[in-house]
Amino acid sequence: MTDEEPASIRAAGGVAWRPGAAGVDVCLVHRPRYGDWSLPKGKLEPGEHPLRAAVREMAEETDVRAVPQVRLPAVHYRSEGRPKRVDYWSMRAVAEGGFQPDTEVDEVRWLPADEAVRLVSYPHDAEVLGAFAALPPVTATVLLVRHGHAGKRGTWSGPDTGRPLDATGWAQAQALAELVALVRPARLLSASARRCVQTLDPAAALLDLPIEVVGDFDEPKPGQQVDECALAAAAHLAALAAAGEPVAVCSQGKVLPGALERLAGRADDFTTPKGGGWLLAFSGDRLVAADRL
């Protein structure tokens, strides 16, 4: 008989912020069961994406609707004899309801980050708050995705731009719609390929937004170089970020790595699987964080 490590507990939460008298204030919760002050967080539901769980738990515990911006350090510890991982994101508070105390959370406080560090009951929460305080101001978020699965290029008899999503791709598009909605985009933009537009169709229906087709996010046409397309995509993404509105963009596999390298100013593994993507945070037109979804 062998001793096996019990399955880990997955949870997610966030540092919600709003403008304060001396910069920004962050949100803490008091839990009467433990008598502690901590960051809002909670366990993932079965099959739930951590980013969605983080936003949901923020709303459930504090009645704050928030837009995720930057992934913060994950926290690892043991709970109930099992390893536990909590993923955190910084979040901009965009709406607040009427918080009602209950048995889980009986008080919510908004404090400057340095005061919050002194109040929290656990060193790991203080570390997450420290990472948040070190961030530059985030002025825009972009959810950048690659189109969903669309079968094999060689089995499609028509022009490649007309190749549609297959059943797997449509399932990926439905899953992506929930993540797209989290950033509350003002616009949805897509490369001109049919599979790219279709990848944003469920999000467009969910958010009641049109899909704008933009050639700057297309893969190279005959006579074009990949670098040329990546440069155009990066420039367009930077311009969208500089405008300050949250947006969601669907592009293609040959374009995304080069565009992200140019925005990040470094070589890295920005390979993006079909149906995958990135949460990008900008300060002005400068990329400050790229969180792989």
From TrEMBL:
Gene Ontology molecular function: any one: hydrolase activity
CDD domains reported for this sequence: HP_PGM_like, NUDIX_Ap6A_hydrolase
Pfam families: His_Phos_1 (PF00300), NUDIX (PF00293)
Nudix hydrolase domain: residues covered: 7-133
EC number(s) on file: 3.6.-.-
Listed InterPro entries: His_Pase_superF_clade-1, His_PPase_superfam, NUDIX_hydrolase-like_dom_sf, NUDIX_hydrolase_CS, NUDIX_hydrolase_dom, Nudix_hydrolase_domain
Alphabetically ordered keywords of this record: Hydrolase
Domain of life: Bacteria
Signal sequence annotation: none
PANTHER family: BIS(5'-NUCLEOSYL)-TETRAPHOSPHATASE [ASYMMETRICAL], DIADENOSINE 5,5-P1,P4-TETRAPHOSPHATE PYROPHOSPHOHYDROLASE MUTT
Name of the protein: NUDIX hydrolase
Organism whose genome encodes this protein: Micromonospora sicca
Lineage per the UniProt record: Bacteria, Bacillati, Actinomycetota, Actinomycetes, Micromonosporales
